Amino acid sequence: MFIDKNDYPALGFKFKVTSNSSFISGLLFGFDPDESYFQSVSGIGANLSTMPVINAGLNNIQYQLPNGTKYTDLDLSRGLMKSNSPMSKWVMKSLTSDLVNSVSSIKTRTINVFLLEKNSNNEDEIVMSWTFFDCYPKGFEIGSFNSNKSEIAIESLKITYSHFSQNTGF
């Protein structure tokens, strides 16, 4: 009996995150994706919101009609780097700019998350990927510092996006 490697669950312990400027400018002018390594990625999810509608005259019947998809925020966490990566610079500029309340000051990006595994040649191979569109930073946080413990300082980035696509079968 032959078992396809796609029949096994994907392991989620090795991944890569890349970003680029907005998708349109990337297509028109080409982009130089900056690559960032993160300790954890969470928030890949979508929920269909519904709106209740009560049938006129039949008070014991209620329909749930689709009302649009809502996406969770993407949370990226990693050890605090001594030098800022291009992604960290983008987040800080977006959140701390004097024009932060101006929509024109927010530069969106497309963010890609790649789930990787080693192939037979011991090279990283993409198992699955997600592309997040129209991303912009929603939050930035640096974890607590404690001089009594020898722990890595963690920075967390919260990114919001308009929608995402999942890519499989590489």
What does it look like?
The protein is mainly beta. 11% of the residues lie in helices and 47% in strands. The model is unreliable at 22-32 (pLDDT under 50). This is Phage tail protein. InterPro entries: CHP02241 (IPR011747), Phage_T4_Gp19 (IPR010667). One of its GO terms (molecular function) is structural molecule activity. It holds the Pfam family Phage_T4_gp19.
Which fold does the CATH topology refer to?
Answer: Pnp Oxidase, Chain A
Could you tell me the strand content as a percent range? over 45%
Number of helices: 2
Indicate the CATH class: Mainly Beta
Sum up the structure in keywords.
about 170 residues; mainly beta; Pnp Oxidase, Chain A; about 45% strand; extended
Structural topology:
Layout: E1 15-21, H1 23-29, E2 34-36, E3 40-42, E4 46-54, E5 62-71, E6 74-79, H2 86-96, E7 109-118, E8 124-142, E9 154-160, E10 163-168
Antiparallel strand pairs: 1-2, 1-7, 3-6, 4-5, 6-9, 7-8, 8-9, 8-10
Brief characterization of the structure:
With 170 residues, the chain is mainly beta. The protein has helices spanning 23-29, 86-96, and strands at residues 15-21, 34-36, 40-42, 46-54, 62-71, 74-79, 109-118, 124-142, 154-160, 163-168. The protein has a single domain (12-47, 61-168), classed as Hcp1-like (Pnp Oxidase, Chain A), CATH 2.30.110.20.
